[in-house]
Amino acid sequence: MPKKDPYLHIADGPKVMGILNATPDSFSDGGKYLNVDRALDRIHIMIQNGADIIDIGGESTRPGSDPVPVQEELDRVIPLIEKAVPLFSNVDFSIDTTKFEVAKAALENGVHIVNDVSGLQKEPRLADLCAEFEAGYVLMHSQGDPKTMQKDPQYDDVLNDIFSFFEKKLKILRTKGVHKIILDPGLGFGKKLQHNLRLIEGLEVFKKFDLPILVGASRKSMIGTILNGRPTDGRVAGTIALHYHALMKGANILRVHDVEEASDSIRIFNAIKTQE
After folding, report:
1. What is the distance, to the nearest Å, from the Cα of residue 98 to the centroid of all Cα atoms in its chain?
2. Does some domain include residue 173?
3. Which positions are catalytic?
4. N or C: which end of the chain has fewer CB within 10 A?
C-alpha cells in the first residue's frame, strides 16, 4: 500500500489527530474500544467529525500505568489496523507505541506514522524502521516512564531543555534517513503544571526547527487541576481553550478525544487567520 505523506496535509493548515485507545485502562476512554467493530464505528465517527489522522494505541501511557507485554499490545491493535487502514483510505493512520515489534507490524499493515512517546529513548531502532518504510515519525519528549514520570519532574528550563532534546534526536533521525518528522513537546509526560503552561506559552520557539508541531492536551490532568479537580468528562471546554492557544502559538496538529469540537475550533481559527 502506498504510504501517505502527512506533510502534504499539514501544509494546508492545522489538522486533527483523533485518539483511538484499544486499551482497558486509558485515563479517559479505557475499555470502550477493545472490540474491533466498536472501534471501527468510532473511527468512522471521528472521520465524519473531521479527523485527518487516526492514532491507534494498545498501551496506556497515563501516569502510573504499567507496561503491556508485546504480544498483548499486538493482539489489541493489529486486528483493528488490518481492517481500519483499507476501510478508511482517506485518512492517515498512526500507531502510538514505543515497541519495535508493534510499530513494525503496524507499518507492514499500512500505517503511515509512528507516534513514539519515548522519543527514541526506549527503542532507538524505530528510527531505522521509519526510514525503511518511509514513514512519518512523531518525536515526543518525555521525562521518565509512565509509571514514575509524574514523581517530581525537574528541569533547568523546560523550553531550553526540550529544545536541546529535539536537536539531539533530530540529528539521529536525519542521519538514519527519517525526514517526515513531527515534534511533540509531550504535555503531561514528566511535567508539572507550570512546565505544561510554559510549554504552551512558549511553543513558538520550536517553530525554529521548521517542522510540524503536535500538541496533545486533550482532557489531561493539567486541565482538571486548573478547573479545581474537574473529572475527565468535564474538561472539553478547557481542552479547546488550551488547544486554541496552542494554535495561536504555531501548533499544526491537535491530538484529541473530542474530534468535532477540535475541528470546529480549527475552522474558527482558519476563518480568522484568512482575514489577516
Report:
1. 12
2. yes
3. 220, 255
4. C
